[in-house]
Design a protein that fits this description.
With 89 residues, the protein is of the alpha+beta class. The chain contains 2 helices and 5 strands, in the order βββββαα. The chain has a single domain, classed as SH3 type barrels (Roll), CATH 2.30.30. The chain is 27% helix and 36% strand. The radius of gyration is 13 Å and the shape is elongated.
Length: 89
């Protein structure tokens, strides 16, 4: 099953709505994400990301709840390993 993961928009690159992208933080792991499907996103917003594309803007409470559910299901195990390993470099 594929899930969307919440992340926080750090900054945005580009002006064209079809080509805009953002750096998004997922528990400290930064990834580049397309904003084509969520052109209204701005720095500080939380977005749901599925396969590298922000599919919607959500509020902070919803992001925290979703992240908590994913953690309980064990679907963040790989992401948490990346965060823990980042400090060892």
């Amino acid at each position: 099953m594929c899930l969307a993961v919440p992340g926080k928009v750090i900054d945005i690159q580009g002006d064209d709505p079809l080509l805009r992208s953002a750096r998004v933080s997922f528990a400290g792991v930064i990834k580049h994400v397309s904003l084509t499907c969520a052109p209204e996103a701005k720095p500080g917003d939380y977005v749901l990301v599925h396969v590298g594309v922000a599919i919607s803007v959500i509020d902070e409470k919803e992001a925290e709840e979703t992240f908590s559910y994913l953690k309980q299901m064990g679907d963040l195990d790989g992401l948490e390993s990346e965060v823990e390993g980042a400090g060892e470099r």
